[in-house]
Amino acid sequence: MPIFPRISLKPEVCDHLKSIFLNKELLAAVGHQEAESRFQRLLMCLSHPPSYTCVRASTHLAPLEDIRQKLGEELKRQQQQMCSSSPEDVYAQILPHPHIPDVLLLPVDGPRPVQQLSSEVVVGAQCGNAVLRGAHVFAPGIIASPKYMKAGDLVSVFSDTEGKCTRGATSFQGLKVFVGNGVAEMDRSSIFCTDEPKKGIGVRMTEPLYQSPSFDGVLPSLAFLQNLPSVVVGHVLGPRPGERVLDMCAAPGGKTCHIAALMGDQGEVVALDRIRNKIDRIGQNAQMLHLHSIKVYCFNSTQAVSSDPSQDSEGPPFPPESFDRVLLDAPCSGLGQRPNMASTWSLKEICSYQPLQRKLIQAAVRLLRKGGVLVYSTCTVTLAENEEQVAWALRTFPCLTLQPQEPHIGAEGMLGAGLSPEQLRLLQRFSPELNWDQTESAVPLPHRANTDTIGFFIAKFLKH
């Protein structure tokens, strides 16, 4: 049941998206009414969280069933500490994915009938999105609170979807969305009246609108929170022990670590990212997951190909044809992320990624050896960043051909970029709007998980 308004977008961005989802190819195939309906469902489902939490289990460290059992015990302990009256057996609710051997699924309970309180805390849109996926409210996310709020007060938490609330305000009458109730962990004065930004939990959520487990500190080396399509990417890449693999835009390192785990930590995984503090996060994740085959460099991947073939240094730039497999999880407009109640981006920002993605694809093709595999992925829904990039890559690099993907649990590629039906079938587009009407029905969780995802795109190429 939709309980939030559609995602809030700037009018020109909304019109641009509509023109994509009502393109001539698509209209000819499904008709105006169905195309319009899909677009409206997309706007609606983007503001809502998926109906489950996806956990990638570290099966390189322990069997899936052992991790499932430990996770059940840990979450039950968490429930008891929160004095939750929930009678369900947590372990029984943790389900293995039917097709992906290292994924566990946990149902999200919501929307729940939660009564709003008179005492209101307002948080930023990003913080509100995190609360809908099981997080508590951390102090930096709080924008407004009651004038005399003390630690221990019961408060209702609202998300400022348009970013118009003034920091430090005592109330806010603008557009806001209720996300649940909690207990203040700090006084108002300690949040707003300090020189240093306050850290730690500001509001501990006790009655979230969508109930899902908080994974803060829960089995950090065995259970890694990751969206289902992001886990699929690692399997589609198919890395093997002993290979040399490049992850071009690697931060925060979830996919990098998955690649190393799939290789049994045998071989070399090179992770590049151009932002220094993000690079540190990759190293921390690798350490936490006991992975030693990962080498991390702060480097701009568009410049990762060396012009000097005799160069023999360990780090970037690398000689052409240095890698067996390359993952390009490209920087993108991120319009597939869920839940996302609002995007303040301009059309110029939304459309700015295509040239960068093409530079990265060019570098990826040069760095890949003949017979090697390139996987290109994004977490967005536009044609320009997805199917159009595939069409451009196939035209520009005759050495590339599209390959079947395993597992293929998403939909095929979207019409509108001039690709053939055979080519579209080889692509994998996770399109939550296609089945949005069915997510509330009696479809069992493991099967619902494949359709009720974030918006995501995957293409797999072989270099001849």
Features:
Rossmann fold; 2 domains; 30% helix; 8-stranded mixed beta sheet; 464 residues; Archaeosine Trna-guanine Transglycosylase, Chain: A, domain 4; globular; alpha/beta
Describe this structure in words.
By secondary structure, the protein is α/β, with parallel strands linked by helices. Helix content is 30%, strand content 21%. It has 2 domains: 1-108 and 217-464, Rossmann fold (3-Layer(aba) Sandwich), CATH 3.40.50; 120-208, Archaeosine Trna-guanine Transglycosylase, Chain: A, domain 4. The protein has 15 helices and 18 strands. α9 (254-262) links the parallel β11 and β12 (268-273). α2 crosses α3 (32-46) and α8 (228-237) packs across α9 (254-262). The longest helix is centred in the N-terminal third of the chain and has 18 residues, at 64-81.
What's the structural blueprint in terms of helices and strands?
Elements: H1 11-21, H2 24-30, H3 32-46, E1 52-57, H4 64-81, H5 90-93, E2 95-96, E3 103-107, E4 120-124, H6 125-132, E5 137-138, E6 142-144, E7 154-160, E8 176-184, H7 188-192, E9 201-208, E10 223-225, H8 228-237, E11 244-247, H9 254-262, E12 268-273, H10 276-288, E13 294-298, E14 323-329, H11 347-350, H12 353-367, E15 368-378, H13 387-396, E16 400-402, H14 421-426, E17 428-430, H15 445-448, E18 456-463
Parallel strand pairs: 4-7, 11-12, 11-14, 12-13, 14-15
Antiparallel strand pairs: 1-3, 1-10, 2-3, 4-6, 5-9, 7-8, 8-9, 15-18, 16-18, 17-18
Helix pairs in contact: 2-3, 8-9
